[in-house]
Amino acid sequence: MVALVQTVAYLGLEARPIEVQCQIAPGMPRFSVVGLADKAVSESRERVQAALAAMGLALPPKRITINLSPADLPKDGSHYDLPIALALLAAMGMTDAEQLGDWIAVGELALDGRIVCEGYKVR
Question: What is the pLDDT of residues 69-95, one digit of tens each?
């Protein structure tokens, strides 16, 4: 199953639609992010894993692939944390994947699972 969550890439003042796709497949455990992601987006793996651990959840011991589509559009920033976490939770069956299609998710995750928005912590 592939779980989908919508987010945006900021290009100056323009926000371009991005689809976050998460697939959990059999294989050696790994967590990879693909789709022309910069260093901050690649570091999302660590923030998402820590946030899930803070909620008492562990990643399944499988091959987790996150694709940020379209792949040719540069993605930068930490605001991809929340949509990646939501897509992962949907792929794990922990949340309703169908309802996620109605929303656009943007937000950085703190290591304790809180959402950080532009320097403000949302509880």
Answer: 999 999 999 999 999 999 999 999 999
